[in-house]
Amino acid sequence: MNTIKTLKYIVIILGFIIIQACAGNPHEDSVLDRIRENQITRMDVNLLVDGTEIQSAGLELMSSPIGMLELSLEDNLNDSVLAIAVHGYQSQGYEWITGLKNLAEHFGSVFFFRYDWEQCPDLIAADLATQILALKKASAYEKIILFGHSYGGLVVTFAASELDNLNAEINVIAAPLSGYPELFDDCATLTYDENDKLIYPKWEQSVRVIQHKTVHAQDGAFRELASDPQEIDLPFERIQELPPTMDGHRLGHNWSVSWVLDQYIGKPHRY
User: Fold this and answer.
1) What is the reported pTM?
2) Residues near 175 by Cβ (< 8 Å), separated by ≥ 6?
3) In angstroms, what CA-CA distances link 8 with 12, 20, 21, 22, 174?
4) What is the separation of C-alpha 260 from the centre of its chain, rounded to a whole number of angstroms?
5) By the 8 A CB rule, do 244 and 215 touch?
6) Rounded to whole angstroms, how far apart are CA atoms 171 and 153?
7) Residue 213 belongs to some domain of the structure
8) Which of 66, 157, 177, 182 is deepest in the core (most CB within 10 A)?
9) CA angle, 238 as apex, 232 and 240 as ends, to 5°?
10) How many helices (H) and strands (E) would you count in the chain?
């Protein structure tokens, strides 16, 4: 009889241990739930090595799953700001490496939004806005900053109308906002004005959109086009004309990312 009681007691203890092991740390569970709900993965920003290895680092960045990638750093300096970078069409990632590392050192919450560029920009924008709103709800961010490059610039501009009252600032970098030949042929939801330029949903004054334009003749993605696809009449808070050179070299389509991100945090490049 005592042996049976002892066995029952051992079974109960073992069951309790197993339950505790499965339950884990309550805080860890909430974090994991947030990652699953918002499609968030994490990467140590120190793994993104620039310099001679910047091409490999770019491919590593772009190999992350579709959705939000959190670029973590041990010392988070500013958790009140949510900074999100949105890549361009067929990006190889290297153009973001230096700028993202600098952003991560300056802000505590930096994310890289990966998407399927075979989708239309307005549909990608709806997904982006949904994930931003979820992040905002989960944390006490006082300001949201978006950096959208090239095709990603269209994405963040379409998302602008869905970010009302969030104290959002959107930086559109070297983006063909007026449209790009043949790129949107299958996007039936997009509309155009009488000048055959894309129409975007209106955004509130609480959302500030800044356009950063490359020099048409210097931009490898645009210079073969008869007209500059960056030209469009939208209620930008400001339009910044980027210089033709950066650190003594041509400032083209991809390196406009480094120029804008570094300038934003006070690490400007020379002409």
Assistant:
1) 0.85
2) 148, 149, 150, 151, 152, 153, 154, 157, 211, 230
3) 6, 19, 20, 21, 70
4) 14
5) yes
6) 8
7) yes
8) 157
9) 80
10) 7, 10
Strand partners, 83: 110, 145
CB of 96 within 8 A of CB of 58?
Answer: yes
- Going by C-alpha positions, the residue among 143, 51, 145 that lies closest to residue 98 is 51
Q: Please provide the distance, in angstroms rounded to a whole number, between the alpha carbons at the two ends of the chain.
A: 88
DSSP class of 69 = E
State which amino acid sits at residue 73. Answer: L
Q: Report if residue 145 sits inside a domain.
A: yes
Sign for the CA dihedral angle at 241, 245, 247, 249 comes to positive
Helix segments in 77-233, DSSP class H? 97-106, 121-138, 151-159
CATH number at residue 116: 3.40.50.1820
d(CA 87, CA 64): 12
Using 70 as the pLDDT threshold, list the residues of the chain that sit under it.
1-39, 74-78
Beta bridge partners of 85: 112, 147
CA 258 to chain centre: 14
> Which of 202, 253, 191 lies closest to 228 in space, CA to CA?
253
> How many domains in the chain?
1
Q: What is the pLDDT of residues 26-61, one digit of tens each?
A: 333 343 354 445 557 888 888 888 877 899 999 999
Question: In one letter, which amino acid is 46?
Answer: N
- In a domain, residue 17? The reply is no
Q: In 2-153, at which residue ranges do the beta strands (DSSP E only) sit?
A: 40-44, 67-72, 81-86, 109-114, 143-149
Which residue in the block uniquely carries the two structure tokens 């069951």? Answer: 15
H-helix or E-strand spanning residue 17: helix 2-23
Q: What residue numbers bound the domain in which 244 lies?
A: 41-264
242 domain residue, yes or no: yes
> What would the pLDDT profile of 175-187 be if each residue is shown by its tens digit?
999 999 888 888 9
